[in-house]
Amino acid sequence: MNNYDVIVVGAGPSGSTLAKLLAGSGVRVLMLDAESFPRRKPCGESLNPGAVAALGRVAGYTNVEQAFDFPYSHLNGWRVVSGKTTLEAAYPKGDFGIGCRREVIDQWMVQQATRAGAIFEQRTRVERLIWEGDRVTGVVARSPEGRPLTIRAAIVAGSDGLRSVVARSAKVNRYGPLRKAAFTMRLNGMQGLSGKVELFTGPHGKVIGLAPIGGGQANMTVALDSNQSSALAGRERSAYVLQEARAIPELFDRLIEAEIEGEVLACGPFDRPVLPHFIEGMVLLGDAAGYYDPLTGQGIYRALRSSEIAAPALLQSLQSGRSEPIRQFVVDRNQEFAFGTKLQHFIERLNRQPLIWRSALRLVGAVPLLRNKLAEVIGDCPKEAQPCIPVMKSP
Ligand SMILES: Cc1cc2nc3c(=O)[nH]c(=O)nc-3n(C[C@H](O)[C@H](O)[C@H](O)COP(=O)(O)OP(=O)(O)OC[C@H]3O[C@@H](n4cnc5c(N)ncnc54)[C@H](O)[C@@H]3O)c2cc1C
Q1: Which domains does the chain show, CATH number per domain?
Q2: Of residues 224, 254, 257, 216, the one with CA closest to residue 240
Q3: Looking at residues 36-59, what average pLDDT do you find?
Q4: Residues flanking ligand 1, CB < 6 Å
């Protein structure tokens, strides 16, 4: 007998969204996370307009800002700097993103899920899937005290991020060719912060992202080819990352009074595709379903959106006992993200060729229509026609 209808592995944006929508429909949901919440997560900490709108839909607020009871900053567009070339682009009128600490927004979303009735167990690491023939029927996890746990459910949702154990256990994870690592830190005293996400690009695919995250702080994330960063620890890591940032002339001045608060988090590589698959009793969401590169800052939107469209499919599947709705969800999700994924690959490749990259920035910057369209597409800006996908109530 199943203990739960759905086990959600991972309580990041995709896990909490799925847990919230399903539990709100009467589904018995258990959400497990290996970490103790609130926890930090290596991230540029900027949510684009699409992510902010999705948060509102998921949490049930027309004006999601009314519900935010934590510090955050408004973001109204992008600024990209490469050498002496600068491109600025604003989101369409009325659309905005936010810069916000991940531990705060993720905890807020976990609360949305538990208030809707999901059970949340933290410090509980999933180790592998349980199979019956070709079907996934549950997970083996480790309790906070180190006890092995066997938990069964009709569906296991892998929302466990880049290094997904669920994807690994299903043997569908792969390593892509792009080998980049990133270092993420919080800065006090950073000068010249605006309401824009700023990207400073340098040689060999180096990208430094900067965003205000509320309370006068900034997030700085430095992404480099893995072979340039190697394994760095502690104080050495902070010095190295600051040195990389100060090599950009504009940042040198703006960083003069900046101080790092807390730990510098490292992660990578990010290029983690998954094989096309369909496995009975299992679905992958968010980064676990494949990730490429953080340059365009769309990961949180995708995590939220993929779970938003997965929830009705999972509910239908539970009610009918058929797997077809989940199969269809995978097709719909891949279709919805296909253009954005191609654009991400194109932008990353372009950024590796400085002369072409700068010409492209100048060209886009000179044509307002192009500039605005790019901000709209990368911002996943909500369209009038994109309704909240309703989740049916269970009988
Ligand atoms: C350097 C960097 C910068 C980024 N910057 C941005 C940005 O500015 N804006 C943006 O939109 N996106 C950004 N992203 C992408 C964004 O962080 C992710 O796309 C997003 O967090 C995906 O959400 P998720 O719920 O799929 O996974 P995650 O947020 O990674 O959550 C996964 C959860 O699963 C848990 N977990 C993992 N393994 C297990 C296990 N075995 N058992 C139980 N729990 C487990 C983890 O503890 C974690 O809480 C960035 C990514 C990187 C790497």
Answers
A1: 4-176+271-378 (3.50.50.60)
A2: 224
A3: 96
A4: 9-15, 32-35, 41-47, 51, 125-126, 159-161, 165, 182, 184, 221, 267, 270, 286-288, 294, 297-301, 303
Sequence-distant (≥ 6) Cβ neighbours of residue 383 within 8 angstroms: none
In the block, residue with structure tokens 């490749």: 349
Q: Select from 203, 231, 220 the least CA-distant residue to 354.
A: 203
What confidence category does residue 63 fall into, taking pLDDT thresholds of 50, 70 and 90? confident
Confidence of residue 78 (pLDDT cuts 50, 70, 90): very high
Amino acid 229: pLDDT: 62
pLDDT, tens digit (0-9, with 9 covering 90-100), for 156-189: 999 999 999 999 999 999 989 888 889 999 999 9
User: What spacing in Å lies between the alpha carbon of 35 and ligand 1's midpoint?
Assistant: 12
Sheet holding 97-99, edge to edge: 46-47, 97-99, 73-75
Ligand 1 atom closest to Cα of residue 160: 34
Over 60: is that where the pLDDT of 108 sits?
A: yes
Residue 386 burial (CB count, 10 A): 15
- Ligand 1 atom having least distance to the Cα of 37: 49
Best mutation site among 16, 30, 41, 341 for ligand 1 pocket (most ligand atoms within 8 Å of CB):
41
